[in-house]
Amino acid sequence: MLAFNSLGSLTVRNSVALAASTYPWHTVSGNTGRRALGHARLHGRGRLRASAAETEVAQTAEAPLHVTVRPPLPKLPERELEFHSAPEGVSGWLNQARLAFALPWRQISDGSVMAFTLSGALPDVPQGRFSSAMSMPLLTEALKKAAADPRIRGIAVKIDPLSIGWAKLQELRRHIDYFRESGKFSLAYMERAGEKEYYLASAFEEIYAPPTASLGLRGFSVGGSFLRGVLDKIGVEPEIKRIGKYKSAGDQLLRTDMSDSQREQLSALLDDIYAGFSADVASSRGKTEAEVREMLDAGYHQAEEYAAQGWITGLKYEDEVEELLKQRTGGKEDRVLRAPLRRVAAVGNSVLRKLASRQVIAVVRTAGAINGGGGGGLPSTGSAITAPDVIRQLKAVKDNKKVAAVILRIDSPGGDALASDLMWREIQQLAAKKPVIASMVDVAASGGYYMAMGATHIVAEPLTITGSIGVVTGKFSLERLFERVGFNQTTISRGRYAEALTGARPQSSEEEAWFDEGAWIAYRSFRDRAAASRGVSPDDLEAVAQGRVWSGRQALEHGLVDVLGGIGRALQLAKLAADIPLAQNVPVIEFSRAKVNPLALLSGSRSAAWLPFLAAMSVLPPQLHSAFRSLYGSVAASAGGLNEIQASDGGLLSGLRSGHPLALSPIVEVTAVSSPSSTVGQVCDCRQEPFGGK
């Protein structure tokens, strides 16, 4: 998933979109590739019931294809971010005067150090003007401003356990590299760190850890958890339809182990991450890739061993790092800025550089599972993309005459197929009026990729998980469970398929064929739109579809994305597409703010042992909840090994229960085997004060 050259720069070429899968029941929808891997037309119904071991891929006659004519990809600079010193002469003097007479709450002493803590989650959506939560936009903006701010001498970051994806880590590393180009010092301090934490820390000039630090770096793993055994014990029969050889969404319900196709695609993703980690750490620390792999295999127990081999700068306790910072500020403790991100990020671009243009570039951020809103979409205990909200933002951007171009940030495994299509349509209409650059974050798969298809160009990080062009839908037969608990349900209906989605019994062969055809219609619609958006035939797209997830690097190779990079690369594309000189400073306006979801507060205290219970409860009718609570007690002990299932997965099962097609990717979490998890699920708080701050 990581793909960098020895200089750390990003390759610019046609690219492919990818989606990773950890939870085998998510539905995937994706895009088409410009270069076919070979034709993969398989004929048949493409139907998979609970009794089937594998999914057959089929393809029927295609409808007429209207290929989207995209503007050619403009020539981009070799580097995404390049530091430029603040203006000198009269302009520089004026900037110094503006900084000196800043408002009291924005004043910063000369020679100050920006010190803060990174931990837990780091959302890609701004958290609100009065929120203390940290976000990717806030952090990256503060790093860029600190690099140009003459009052800032350096940065010091305490890195606690993180729960963010590899693509975000890549973007953070790029901004740290940008800061270091200013010639200012950068320092990282760690007490508990796994591969993700060290991957980020390795980008800093100096790395310190206490002698007793827990820095066990041992490698990476990927896996899946499977509920079929649990469902069998409680009498729930999953009836899942999915299209695509690699469409592992549904495996968690249908299988007791990993399929060969799932193992194939996950192994490819794991290889990308392992190779990328080795290359980037080697480049940052002056080592070879072979030395990085040897370090992982050595499995050092003591921080002293990492220091002796040059993987960290030295051994220091937190108070010693604090003393070091005081020395670098001339003994003036007040120049070690505590929780400074908002203060530094608030400095206007016009203060640090030349005046901005009258045009603006809008950023619309989308994160979470996709639903249609109005109570009919895909439930979620965390953040969610609600189609009406996103469409409202897109319309506002389209009608705003000052907006020259739009950057659409996507961090989603997908979800409701209809909601994905409605947003795609609005994005397509917006792109017909002004340039839209899709910028993928950690995951932009299935429905997330569906959204990106409507954009003018697509940018993905090498670590992004994307693709997963396929469809999954299904229902659950609760007949055996009803018999077990003594529940009876009688239904009177009119119409051949009126009871096709009933949970009281399995589907008949006629109902199954009808249900199967609906899944194929959804798949062909998605596949053909993807093919048209990438300018290829459905046959060519089929070769890179079939529900397979790709890394951003792999997606580039197969033509599913256009460029590798982050929001900086997307900004370059947006400027060029809108005929704005790259050197011109253009205001970037955020059109999205995070909403507080009370359900998300429940996810932090979940117990892994109860996750099968939560998942099963989500598929049962409310009248059976109390009966199942008592029944679950007898099988809970046999539900071990499910710690990888997230609380939100219960909501995804509930989405399948509706019988509607889902464009949802099975998310596979590629974990660093030694990563600490004490802050997983928590959002980093800007008010956290590192290095002994009061």
Structural commentary:
InterPro entries: ClpP/crotonase-like_dom_sf (IPR029045), Pept_S49_SppA (IPR004635), Peptidase_S49 (IPR002142), S49_SppA_67K_type_N (IPR047217), S49_SppA_C (IPR047272). This is Peptidase S49 domain-containing protein. One of its GO terms (biological process) is proteolysis. Keywords: Hydrolase, Protease, Serine protease. It contains 23 helices and 22 strands. The protein is globular, with a radius of gyration of 26 Å. By secondary structure, the chain is an alpha/beta fold. The longest helix has 26 residues.
Q: What portion of residues is helical?
A: 25-40%
Largest sheet: 8 strands, mixed
**Regions with pLDDT < 50 over 5+ consecutive residues?**
1-65, 375-382, 598-613, 630-653
CATH class of the largest domain: Alpha Beta
Based on CA atoms alone, the radius of gyration comes out at: 26 Å
Number of domains: 2
CATH architecture annotation of the largest domain: Alpha-Beta Complex
Shape category: globular
